[in-house]
Write a structure and sequence with these properties.
Blueprint lengths: L9 E2 L2 E2 L10 E3 L5 E3 L6 H17 L4 H5 L8 H11 L1 H17 L2 H26 L17 H14 L10 H38 L10 E4 L5 H12 L6 E6 L3 H11 L9 E6 L5 H6 L7 E4 L6 H16 L8 E6 L5 H8 L3 E5 H14 L3 H8 L6 E5 L20 E6 L5 E3 L12 E6 L30 E5 L5 H9 L6 E7 L4 H10 L10 E7 L5 H5 L8 E4 L9 H25 L4 H4 L3 E5 L2 H8 L2 H4 L3 E4 H14 L2 H11 L22
Helix pairs in contact: 1-3, 3-4, 5-6, 5-7, 6-7, 8-22, 11-12, 13-15
Length: about 700
């Protein structure tokens, strides 16, 4: 900050006092300090600075004599301001009053109050002046007597009419009345213009809040979706299907993106007809702040779904954790359950710890990795899961039936002609899949079935069916497998650990990717908690190369593998369309190389084609595949984002489904299998 310094010096034209301020002896150094100097080279620059500081002192009320009497020391700008305040103390008080007035009028409520006060004062002042020039006119048709009229009251009324309707002052004819009327009318125009300006600002602010999605949501028993990701629209679509049987519902979406952008994308990908009566309310804000969570009435929602963000898994899970902390810190207790998507299985216990009993979690990458693994080892299983998960077609239902208490589980199959019983959920919440036939159903047990809707089935009298002769069961011999992984998933460690527990000893997994160098892969797996040397049944083999390159794929022995899984490589996960393009390229190259080699060996492709499962992230890619029969028949496709959305939608509507899915997708004992029909049916004479 500039400072002023004075010293004794003799001017060329005469002498000065020791405390005088000489313009020719001021210089400004690089630190911003103004000091004295005899260097003539600085005179041009110094002259401006000295004049500016001197002018500042003089404008502040400091006299020239006081400036010359200043002590010999460096003066800071604070000291300059102190000199100004001392010279003009009333100026500082005026500035303080103006500052407080500005701060007061910055608030909308105070602006309105100030206008009302100004209006009353203007009417009172104008009425008082007009009362002095008012004249009683019996020819104007006034039915009142002059003695009954209060001059001041009449002046107030006339001033108000002149302010509200400036044209009314044209009816006065006395010169003094016209002058006063013009002044009151002009003041009224200014007053109501100010009111109109505030009203316009209020309306604009309200419209801007509505446009930006900042207004408060007044709903209850609704579903709140937090986050805007590739799964958001797919999840909303599943929730619309879930609400269809109830005539629709309310879904409130809160995300950091602008409301206009979200509305536009929803309008394109989920038109009004596909919402099936469900109303979608969009608000823009952060899911990590309690103010925005209260804005969407999160505490009154029947369920809250927290979607994991994009980018690094740890960063996304930390945002989910912060969101859970904000939800648990709301002033009101949550009325519904919370479902949180977690990207890394290691972060799952922490989210559950923070969320407490009201929170369920879905580790999306872990669940889908296992689903892809089972689909690759059992071709066609991906289609089965896709049809069972979600609310389109048949789904899982839980219900207790008093009429079934005391029966054996094997006896209830013939009592449900419109549903398929698959398990039992006890009163304590324990799920038993495929219980033994002699398991006794107790009071409070819920029968888990696969049905079209919750209203389309109920137990009936047992049907009489001639089951016929059962086929001879075939021995299930597990063989050594050789599995090819194309691409590197972030949760590949969990997939390998899961696979190690279900395959036969001697099975190999060949991992081919160009995203991670060969010499770093085992170290990366070890850092994530997997020591490949301690695997019991698996041997991990690493291959380097871009799976989208034909030359790299031709270098490996494709015929050696028993199954192949094409993952969306983690280096492309931020761009779903790019990841899907790379996966499709790998799949088509794989089948083309296999077809060419089989043609050379004169073998039929259908006989020895290995099972292949391809991960697809974007729903638009899946629609493209469905429209191309050549591509759709070349492989099984696992649309992971849709499956995650289906799982999240089912669990948000019914928390019991979470335990069922944990059994089907997480345990080593309970799997879905599809068998050839000749293993469960025996053809009779004349049957086709």
């Amino acid at each position: 900050m500039p400072t002023v310094a004075s010293t004794a010096s003799a001017a060329s034209g005469g002498t000065m006092t020791s405390n005088a301020l000489s313009e020719e002896q001021i210089e400004v150094d690089m630190s911003g300090t103004v000091s004295l100097s005899d260097d003539p080279k600085q005179k041009a620059l110094d002259k401006y600075n000295v004049k500016a500081i001197t002018r500042e002192l003089q404008l502040g009320g400091v006299s020239r004599s006081r400036i010359e009497e200043m002590p010999r020391k460096r003066l800071t700008m604070r000291e300059v301001a102190a000199e100004q305040d001392q010279a003009r103390p009333e100026g500082r008080r005026v500035k303080r009053i103006l500052y407080l007035l500005d701060d007061c009028l910055s608030k909308r409520r105070n602006q309105t109050l100030a206008l009302v006060i100004c209006g009353f004062l203007q009417v009172a002042f104008g009425g008082s002046i007009y009362a002095a020039v008012w004249r009683y006119d019996p020819l104007a048709g006034d039915p009142r007597n002059e003695d009954d009229i209060n001059r001041f009251t009449e002046g107030i009324w006339v001033a108000w009419t002149f302010m509200t309707d400036p044209g009314t002052h044209a009816g006065v004819y006395l010169p003094e009345q016209r002058v006063v009327g013009c002044g009151i009318a002009l003041g009224g125009i200014i007053f109501f213009a100010a009111i109109l300006g505030i009203v316009v600002d209020i309306i604009q602010e309200k419209m801007e809040l509505l446009r930006q999605g900042k207004s408060k949501v007044i709903e209850k028993e609704h579903t709140v979706v937090l986050g805007w990701t590739d799964k958001t629209i797919l999840l909303i679509q599943e929730l619309c299907l879930a609400n269809e049987s109830q005539g629709g519902g309310v879904i409130v979406l809160l995300a950091n993106e602008s409301k206009e952008a979200m509305e536009l994308q929803l309008k394109v990908e989920l038109p009004q007809k596909q919402r099936l009566g469900t109303r979608i309310v969009i608000r823009s804000g952060s899911s990590q702040t309690m103010v925005d969570l209260m804005k969407v009435a999160a505490h009154k929602a029947k369920s809250i779904v927290v979607l994991a963000g994009e980018g690094e898994s740890d960063h996304a899970d930390s945002e989910t954790l912060r969101c859970m902390l904000s939800l648990r810190s709301l002033d009101y207790d949550l009325q519904g359950n919370v479902l949180a998507e977690v990207r890394d299985v290691d972060n799952d216990p922490l989210v559950k710890l923070v969320g407490g009993s009201v929170v369920d979690t879905v580790v999306s990458h872990d669940v889908l990795g296992r689903l892809m693994l089972m689909s690759a080892r059992s071709p066609g299983l991906a289609k089965v899961y896709e049809s069972l998960l979600g609310f389109e077609g048949d789904e899982f239902y839980f219900r207790a039936w008093d009429e079934l208490v005391g029966l054996k589980f094997g006896e209830i199959f013939l009592r449900f002609p419109d549903a398929v019983p698959i398990g039992i959920r006890t009163e304590k919440g324990v799920v038993h899949m495929k219980p033994k036939s002699d398991h006794i159903i107790e009071k409070g047990d819920e029968i888990i079935v696969i049905a079209e809707d919750k209203d389309t089935y109920r137990p009936k009298e047992p049907a009489i069916i001639d089951a016929g002769r059962a086929p001879v069961p075939e021995a299930c011999n597990q063989n050594v497998e050789h599995i090819l992984f194309c691409g590197w998933r972030r949760d590949v460690r969990d997939i390998i650990l899961f696979l190690d527990g279900i395959v036969k000893e001697g099975t190999t997994v060949t991992m081919m990717s160009h995203g991670i160098p060969l010499h770093l892969r085992n170290a990366k797996l070890l850092e994530e908690g997997l020591d490949v040397t301690k695997l019991k049944n698996l041997q991990v083999i690493h291959e380097a190369g871009n799976t989208g390159s034909r030359r790299k794929l031709e270098a490996i022995d494709i015929e050696h593998f028993t199954s192949c899984m094409i993952f969306a490589d983690q280096i492309f996960e931020d761009d779903t369309m790019h990841a899907d393009s790379h996966s499709l390229s790998t799949m088509l190259l794989f089948r083309a190389i296999q077809t060419e080699r089989k043609r050379r060996s004169a073998k039929k492709i259908i006989e020895d084609s290995i099972p292949l499962i391809c991960e697809i992230l974007d729903s638009r890619t899946q629609k493209t595949i469905a429209g191309n029969s050549a591509v759709s028949l070349a492989s099984d496709f696992c649309q992971t984002n849709r499956l995650v959305a289906q799982i999240l939608g089912m669990v948000s509507e019914n928390r019991n489904v979470k335990a069922l899915l944990d059994e089907l997708l997480g345990a080593l004992d309970d799997f879905l299998h599809h068998l050839p029909r000749d293993q469960v049916l025996v053809a009779t004479d004349g049957a086709r």
